[in-house]
């Protein structure tokens, strides 16, 4: 564990070193490729600006995530309980992922204006899909033999659900949640990119239009940091909810 | 009392029906221990499933008077519950108030099941044999009127097996459950059962039924072996 962390950090440092050399010695033009140090400097100088815009982006991303969790759990539940609903909704779900977000987002803009709502919708559109699909797979993880066994033990439908199906579905759900977590900030940024009052996406477009590449990269850095934070929160939740999975992981390490 | 009268069962495999049980009749009286021996794939687990109510027979009658505790061939332990929590699950399902007492009892039984110190471990941390013993412990904690045991000692070494057989024999005389024991081990059947049914290959029929005579271990062993070999 410790060792793999060392390698990860070494890999990142090596990448930054390569970038620094490339930018400082070969490109040598800040408006084309700023050095990592210049990016850091811009990050520090524009910290309050970045934070101000981050607030919007993070509210959109976290809000969208929370709503996706609710929405996807409910949908997965209904779909797993009613076969007909599942058959009717599944194709729609898949179809919803085939329309490019960059095409949909401007439509949301027209319908819902420049506020947060259209961005939250973009986040939901991106985030709920992996969670529904995974939760659905998870809810059928308990096979019919196992369910028959516990039914014979005397479990009611409700007990079967809370004691067997739900716990067995949880690892799958968290798998989907991880994917969503990684995409959530990106979704908000894409939404803002196409028109917003505030947010990192707006800041990005502005910085790019004025050829302020250090600020552009600083905004990207902020996006990465926030995404990592959301991912870490999800991983932490998983850590506490799935204690028994950690135990299994140890066995095979 | 468990009564199966002329039970038939078919499964469908690639649209073609395959007959698994063919006119099987057997019974287990309260407090009686009955063993079921037969070649692999002859329908023993299917029969237990019918008695436990997993599915219905295609023909014949299955009557069960009393509560049944089933130990399947697969341990069916829940991976997110510790050994003790798995073992006490039947009690938890039926009557939550009895759970603390049941946990204490299960904990006291752990050493006997060779699970001392593993009460709080998760099933994935156990060996195959240990999981089997945990599943047996769960069946015992369930404490029904009839215990349906599907190869309960199949994965154990000879010594542990003997220990648990001895203990099962002891606890039988204490709780007096009816036992229907599926096994491949002729000796085990002769040690644990009062009566033995021998089944044919698929489609499973009852080929013979014999009372166990305590003094005639060797003769009966040979007899069962002959019954199993015939028709091969
Ligand atoms: N759900 C099912 N669908 C189709 N066929 C099945 C099903 N369950 C069992 N069978 C078939 O029924 C036959 C009997 O299976 P069963 O599990 O009862 O055998 P068994 O006597 O317990 O064997 P073993 O000693 O190996 O455990 C097998 O040939 C199997 O292929
Ligand atoms: Mg079997």
Characterize the main sheet of chain A: none
The H-and-E topology of chain B, N to C, reads as EEEHEEHHHHEHEHEEH
Number of helices of chain B: 8
Structurally, the number of domains of chain A stands at: 1
List how many beta strands of chain A DSSP finds: 0
CATH class of chain A: Mainly Alpha
Shape label of chain B: globular
Largest sheet of chain B: 6 strands, mixed
From the structure above, extract its key features.
heterodimer, A: mainly alpha, MetI-like fold, B: alpha/beta, Rossmann fold, 2 domains, 3-stranded antiparallel β-sheet, globular, binds adenosine-5'-triphosphate, binds magnesium ion
Q: How is this structure best summarized?
A:
By secondary structure, chain A is an all-alpha fold. Chain A has helices at 2-27, 36-45, 47-81, 83-96, 101-112, 117-139, 144-152, 157-193, 200-209, 213-241, 243-252.
Question: How do the helices and strands line up, and which of them pair or pack?
Answer:
The complex is a heterodimer of chains A (253) and B (232).
Chain A: H1 2-27, H2 36-45, H3 47-81, H4 83-96, H5 101-112, H6 117-139, H7 144-152, H8 157-193, H9 200-209, H10 213-241, H11 243-252
Chain B: E1 2-13, E2 16-28, E3 33-37, H1 44-52, E4 59-64, E5 68-71, H2 83-87, H3 89-94, H4 99-109, H5 128-142, E6 146-150, H6 158-175, E7 178-183, H7 186-192, E8 195-199, E9 206-211, H8 217-229
């Amino acid at each position: 564990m410790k060792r793999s962390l060392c390698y990860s950090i070494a890999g990142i440092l090596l990448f930054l070193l390569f970038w620094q050399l490339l930018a400082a010695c070969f490109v040598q033009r800040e408006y084309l490729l700023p050095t990592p140090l210049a990016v850091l400097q811009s990050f520090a100088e524009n910290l309050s600006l970045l934070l101000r815009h981050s607030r919007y982006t993070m509210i959109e991303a976290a809000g969208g995530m929370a709503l996706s969790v609710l929405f996807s759990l409910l949908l997965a539940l209904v779909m797993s309980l009613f076969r007909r609903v599942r058959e009717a909704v599944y194709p729609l779900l898949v179809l919803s992922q085939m329309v490019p977000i960059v095409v949909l987002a401007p439509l949301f803009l027209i319908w819902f204006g420049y506020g947060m709502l259209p961005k939250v919708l973009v986040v939901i559109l991106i985030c709920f899909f992996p969670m529904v699909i995974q939760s659905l797979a998870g809810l059928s993880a308990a096979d019919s033999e196992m369910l028959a066994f516990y039914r014979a033990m005397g479990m009611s439908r409700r007990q079967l659900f809370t004691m067997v199906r739900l716990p067995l579905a949880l690892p799958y759900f968290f798998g989907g949640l991880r994917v969503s977590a990684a995409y959530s900030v990106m979704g908000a940024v894409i939404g803002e990119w196409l028109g917003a009052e505030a947010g990192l996406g707006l800041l990005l477009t502005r910085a790019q239009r004025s050829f302020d590449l250090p600020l552009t990269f600083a905004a990207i850095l902020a996006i990465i940091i926030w995404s990592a934070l959301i991912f870490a929160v999800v991983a932490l939740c998983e850590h506490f909810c799935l204690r028994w999975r950690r135990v299994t992981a140890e066995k095979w390490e | 009392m468990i009564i199966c009268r002329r039970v038939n069962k078919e499964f469908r495999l690639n649209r073609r029906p395959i007959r698994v049980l063919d006119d099987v009749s057997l019974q287990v009286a309260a407090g009686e221990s009955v063993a079921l021996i037969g070649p692999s794939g002859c329908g023993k687990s299917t029969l237990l499933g019918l008695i436990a109510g997993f599915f219905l027979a295609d023909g014949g009658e299955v009557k069960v008077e009393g509560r049944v505790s089933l130990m399947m061939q697969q341990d069916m332990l829940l991976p997110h519950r510790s050994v003790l929590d798995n073992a006490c699950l039947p009690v938890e399902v039926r009557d939550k108030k009895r759970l603390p007492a049941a946990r204490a009892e299960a904990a006291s039984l752990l050493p006997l099941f060779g699970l001392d110190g593993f009460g709080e471990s998760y099933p994935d941390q156990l060996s195959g044999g240990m999981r089997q013993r945990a599943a047996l412990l769960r069946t015992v904690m369930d404490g029904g009127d009839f215990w349906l045991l599907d190869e309960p000692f199949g994965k154990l070494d000879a010594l542990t097996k003997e220990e648990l057989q001895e203990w099962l024999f002891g606890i039988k005389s204490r709780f007096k459950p009816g036992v229907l024991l599926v096994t491949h081990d002729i000796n085990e059947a002769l040690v644990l059962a009062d009566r033995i049914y021998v089944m044919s290959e698929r489609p499973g029929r009852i080929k013979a039924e014999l009372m166990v005579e305590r003094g005639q271990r060797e003769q009966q062993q040979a007899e069962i072996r002959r019954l199993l070999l015939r028709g091969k």
